[in-house]
Amino acid sequence: VQLAESGGGLVQAGGSLRLSCAASGSIFSIIPMAWHRQAPGKQRELVAVINSSGSTNYADSVQGRFTISSDNAKNTVYLQMNSLKPEDTAVYYCNTYRAGVTYWGQGSQVTVSS
């Protein structure tokens, strides 16, 4: 399984970005999938999860601003990020866990200027 993130970039505070995580390889379903982020000097943290049932969970810091969704036909999971804040600046990674193996993408940089 290979994961590839895209859609990061530089945006002003209050703006929006949509990240994509495209999966390839031996994958039956695009979900479950999670988004994590890691800011400079900080530990990687869980941002959002879409479970096998399609239910979603979010970190308190992004609740109401970020939305995780999936498109099984495109083997892609999205993270819509609205009302971005400078503290959202980080490298964002998608990851999944299948048959005892954890997979990570290479990461996508999101920078929010104040």
Task: Give a short summary of the structure.
Helices cover 0% and strands 55% of the residues. It has strands spanning 2-6, 9-12, 17-24, 33-38, 45-50, 56-58, 66-71, 76-81, 90-98, 101-104, 108-113.
Explained architecture:
With 114 residues, the protein is mainly beta. The chain contains no helices and 11 strands. Strands 2, 4, 5, 6, 9, 10 and 11 form a 7-stranded mixed beta sheet that branches. A 4-stranded antiparallel beta sheet has the order 1-3-8-7, with no helix packed on it. The mean pLDDT is 95.
Number of DSSP-assigned strands: 11
- Which term fits the overall shape? globular
The biggest beta sheet reads: 7 strands, mixed
Helix percent band: under 10%
Structural class based on helices, strands and sheet pairing:
mainly beta
- Roughly what fraction of the amino acids lie in strands? over 45%
Mean pLDDT: 95
What's the total helix number? 0
Name the poorly predicted regions.
none
**Mind telling me the C-alpha Rg?**
13 Å
Order of helices and strands: EEEEEEEEEEE
- Report, as a whole number of angstroms, the end-to-end distance: 37 Å
